Amino acid sequence: MEAASAAFVRAFKNKFTDRDLAISIYCGTGNNGGDGLAIARLLKQEGYDRIAVRIARFSTKQTDDFAANLQRLQLTGIPVLEIKPGDVFPEEEAEVLIDALLGSGLNKPLGGEFVCLVQHLNALQKSIVAVDISTGFPAEGKIDPQETVVLAYWVISFQRPKINFFFPESVVAMKGFQVVDIGLDEEFIQSQSGGWKLVEEQDIRRVLKARQIFSHKGTYGHALIIAGHEQTMGAALLCADACLHAGAGLTTACIPPQGLTALNTRSPEVMALIRDEYLFANIDLKKYQSLAVGPGLGKNESEVKLLQTLIEQASVPLILDADALNILAQNPDWLKHLPAKSILTPHVKEFDRLFGAHNSWWKRLETGRIKATEYQLIILLKNQYSFIILPSGKVLINPTGNPAMAVGGMGDVLTGILAAFLAQGYQPEEAAMLACYLHGKAGDVLKEQGMACIPPRYLIELLPKVIDATNC
């Protein structure tokens, strides 16, 4: 508890540097409240003199660590006010509130006096910093947006983020979070089995291979991008250009004849394969190490036949995006015929078209795990934090990316990057992890450089530098 509280205080000091800040710390009587009491004492030692502690005495129970920290706090001179059932809540002049009421041990919705207190704190419209997790918010499981939870400006979480931090519904409980190391045994944590894994840069460095001397374009594979329609060539161009910049040795774009001039102008390094009704009767798909289909493709009868033929003939995992997913949703029986470890890249609406409507992200992930296992697929569910659902049912959470990337065409870029890594010989699981992480990291670099919104072409241009920097 002392280590956790010290880690919280270090993070708090970096965000709130004014030592004259008025702070009120709301504590329950469990271990999260014990953290709050220790935080109050440590903040006082760091020169924050305007501190008050409020203890919610809504139960006669208290933990031993809470009691021990309350004794230590009494030696500091910090004022302590106990709030009991039926009491009028105190007036609050503090600029920042610290939520240490209940923590992550809660396994049911808030009830009774805690509901009233949390509603009162939210109504104050102060900056609230939560200790480990916002009070009332579940660490995992379905999130009910109607339940009462503390809306924190910032959550400082201990050792690991909570799974639910990565779901869009978490906005009811926080605007951002930070994870701090509290000294737990990392080797022990990593040895535990679990269905959820957070991707870190060290995972990327472990997988990503540097280019070797005497290698050549043939070393890095040949990717085929089947995309674009007469009025949606932009998607095909972005996808093919991203594949080129992510390192495929050869990239061929299979496009309608109307797109040839645009392709040659945009990416002269990319070869063209003109798409017509006779193409797939004669094409040799075995010459390609990766096959991506869907961006801007269209959903007419010819495209439906094209996808069906591709599924029947492909001998390598497919990457299906955009219109390919929409065609697949109309032909769900095709799922069982996809090559093993094919990668589907749906956004939330495409996912629900494929697998049925869902009323929560938790349920969506449950379905994704079932379907990925049933069909032996990789489902890359795109989100602020994308979820990579593996054929084993395990989920990799990608931490990179930001709202500045919410621009049309970003998904086409991701598909191109996936195709590049598959072409280079990475396993599908590795390709999905690398593509997601590096795509998001490039976006993060551009955001840090001051781009409020990021046109996908800028991200494509930065990709080789991001890949090289990550590979160092």
Low-confidence stretches: none
Determine the strand fraction and express it as a percent band.
15-25%
Question: Helix fraction?
Answer: 25-40%
Number of helices: 16
By secondary-structure content and strand pairing, the structural class works out as alpha/beta
Biggest sheet record:
10 strands, mixed
Can you give the mean pLDDT?
Answer: 95
Rg? 26 Å
Regarding quaternary structure, what we see is: single chain
**N- and C-termini, Cα separation:** 37 Å
Number of strands: 17
Shape: elongated
Strand order of the largest sheet: 8-17-16-15-14-13-12-9-10-11
Description:
There is one protein chain. The chain is 39% helix and 15% strand. The chain has helices spanning 2-15, 31-45, 64-73, 112-123, 186-191, 201-207, 233-245, 260-266, 279-282, 301-313, 323-330, 348-355, 361-375, 410-423, 428-448, 456-470, and strands spanning 23-27, 51-56, 80-83, 96-100, 127-131, 154-158, 177-180, 196-198, 222-226, 250-255, 271-274, 290-293, 318-320, 343-344, 378-381, 387-389, 395-397. Strand 2 (51-56), helix 3 and strand 3 (80-83) form a beta-alpha-beta unit. It starts with a helix and ends with a helix. 45% of the residues are buried. The mean pLDDT is 95.
